[in-house]
């Protein structure tokens, strides 16, 4: 049995960022051996255990094979013959496919260290395309690390576009979409999340109310940037500087939704766009199961 620290804890430590949660991979063990050692099994779909003292998660090394549609259609294989490299290969990004042994040595089979140095978000393998949730995860990572000048690799963004155009995102449940969105709204640069979704075509699929704002002009006297979509992301960026609260940031994101309903012949004026936008806010919040306390402020703004 060999135990390795993996994923985000390794990545953030190498970036000099605080490590919040630590996840471990166990190679060469079995569920019974883990139970005999005092670990408590918590995973239903694959063997994940809680350490008896630290309560940190320890997962048996596993592989995943696509067996159905969406992000839940996977068959997992966990056994003593699954190597660390096999386990790391199923991860989304190379910077998340790093491991550290008990001597502090970094194991990097997929050039995660190089991509960390070059500030690149790059997918590990073509299997990335089997899980549509990863489109949102990459957008969230782009927002989370924007202040460190990370960017998405061209080939990864191209794959995200392919997934979107193939209709893969339609398999996502509203709860998962909101969970990723809420996490992105807590980052230092939440506007990047929505810009990435627009870049890969996912904004039109998941947030059509926001996507429809791009290309809609506003009076240059009040909005020098003119484009309402650009204005919305700029405003969200400013809101993130002023408040850490998700409800404030989400309300800012939604504040001009009504302008997307203005007939083009009336542009660039948008009389009555405030009341008109309330219905769109309610529509968006109902579709994504947005919590009432977050929805209520967005309706007021």
Layout of strands and helices, then pairs:
Elements: E1 2-6, H1 8-14, E2 23-27, H2 31-36, E3 40-41, E4 48-50, E5 57-60, E6 62-66, E7 74-78, H3 84-89, E8 99-100, E9 106-107, H4 112-117, E10 120-121, H5 133-144, E11 151-152, H6 154-165, H7 174-185, H8 190-199, H9 202-206, H10 208-211, H11 228-242, H12 246-254, H13 273-288, H14 292-300
Parallel strand pairs: 2-5, 10-11
Antiparallel strand pairs: 1-2, 1-8, 3-4, 4-5, 6-7, 8-9
Q: Describe it for me?
A:
The strands form 3 sheets. A 7-stranded mixed beta sheet has the order 3-4-5-2-1-8-9. The chain has a two-stranded antiparallel ribbon with strand order 6-7. α5 crosses α8 and α8 (190-199) runs antiparallel to α11 (228-242). It has helices at residues 8-14, 31-36, 84-89, 112-117, 133-144, 154-165, 174-185, 190-199, 202-206, 208-211, 228-242, 246-254, 273-288, 292-300, and strands at 2-6, 23-27, 40-41, 48-50, 57-60, 62-66, 74-78, 99-100, 106-107, 120-121, 151-152. It is α+β, with helices and mostly antiparallel strands. It has 14 helices and 11 strands. The chain folds into 2 domains: 2-118, Beta Polymerase, domain 2, CATH 3.30.460; 146-300, no CATH class. The mean pLDDT is 92. β8 and β9 (106-107) form a beta hairpin. Its EC number is 2.7.7.72. This is Fused tRNA nucleotidyltransferase/2',3'-cyclic phosphodiesterase/2' nucleotidase/phosphatase Cca. Belongs to the tRNA nucleotidyltransferase/poly(A) polymerase family. Residues 228-301 form the HD domain. It comes from Escherichia coli.
């Amino acid at each position: 049995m060999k135990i390795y620290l993996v994923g985000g804890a390794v990545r953030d430590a190498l970036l000099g960022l605080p490590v919040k949660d630590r996840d471990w991979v166990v190679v060469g063990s079995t569920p019974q051996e883990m139970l005999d050692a005092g670990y408590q099994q918590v995973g239903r779909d694959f063997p994940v255990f809680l350490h008896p003292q630290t309560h940190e998660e320890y997962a048996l090394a596993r592989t995943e094979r696509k067996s159905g549609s969406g992000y839940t259609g996977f068959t997992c294989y966990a056994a003593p013959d699954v190597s660390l490299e096999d386990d790391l290969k199923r991860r989304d990004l190379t910077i998340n496919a790093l491991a550290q042994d008990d001597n502090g040595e970094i194991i990097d089979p997929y050039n995660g260290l190089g991509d960390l140095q070059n500030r690149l978000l790059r997918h590990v393998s073509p299997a990335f395309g089997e899980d549509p949730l990863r489109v949102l995860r990459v957008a969230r990572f782009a927002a989370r690390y924007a202040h460190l000048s990370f960017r998405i690799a061209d080939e990864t963004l191209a794959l995200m576009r392919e997934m979107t155009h193939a209709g893969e995102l339609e398999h996502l449940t509203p709860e998962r979409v909101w969970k990723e969105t809420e996490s992105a709204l807590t980052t230092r640069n939440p506007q990047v999340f929505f810009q990435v979704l627009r870049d890969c075509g996912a904004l039109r699929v998941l947030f059509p109310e926001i996507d429809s704002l791009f290309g809609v002009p506003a009076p240059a006297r009040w909005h020098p940037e003119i484009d309402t979509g650009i204005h919305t992301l700029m405003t969200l960026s400013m809101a993130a500087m002023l408040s850490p609260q998700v409800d404030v940031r989400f309300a800012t994101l939604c504040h001009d939704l009504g302008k997307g309903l203005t007939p083009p012949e009336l542009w660039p004026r948008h009389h009555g766009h405030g009341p008109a936008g309330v219905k769109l806010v309610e529509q968006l919040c109902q579709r994504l199961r947005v919590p009432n306390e977050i929805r209520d402020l967005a309706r007021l703004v």
